[in-house]
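It is worth pausing here to work through a concrete case rather than discussing structure prediction in the abstract. The textbook approach is simple: state the sequence, then state the predicted structure, then interpret. We follow exactly that order.
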Amino acid sequence: MEWARSTTLGGATEVTLLTPITPGLVPGEKRTYEQRLSAGLESVQRRVAARVPTVIGGMPTIHFARWLILRPAQYLQNSAIDPKDPSLRSWLLFTSNFDGQLKDYLREFSVFLGEDVDRIWGNCEGWPKAGSRSFEEYWDYAKRHQVPTDAFYAAYPELSVGRIRQLQRFKRAFDELVARTRRPDGTSIDGIGPLLDRFLAENSVYANDFPQEGGTYVGTDAT
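Step two, the predicted structure:
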């Protein structure tokens, strides 16, 4: 069967993986693979919700990532099929948008998130015994379970994650400049010209040819 291909729009690429969760109990434990997976994902979510720094948050290419468990009772709603049928199984769905190419993206997962990747997908059937560190096996596994995307939308396809973060920093700095140069009645303070020149000099890394007509600016993507 031909492997699915990721869709790219501008510089943004998508991937969707659907992997079967291993049935039964984890050897030496009293919980199932699905229960262990669920606990692991809940731990990730708690860290994200608490804004605790995570390795995934430091990866320079991820726009968005989501894991969710698809259970028979969910995907068979309003179906004549009994979701309690023991032959049915749960699946792990992973979707993500990122900068660049899929293989490079998964290689970053392997390098930066190897242990976390193994803790998650290690609960799925066919996961390589050597885990994600055995990259070619990991790559083959991901491609076998990739689902083709029929429609892909990216709000800012020409902006990399690095560039978006630059623009955030620029916006904060500009807001601070505005706050320093406005009187309570909304008028400008005296000597705003030198302050603006200094601001542009300090923040030139974020913009080229600033300002353009209409107050916009043109920049290049961070590398």
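Step three, interpretation. Strands lie at 8-9, 12-20, 62-70, 91-99. Helices lie at 33-49, 55-58, 72-75, 102-112, 114-121, 135-144, 161-181, 192-202.
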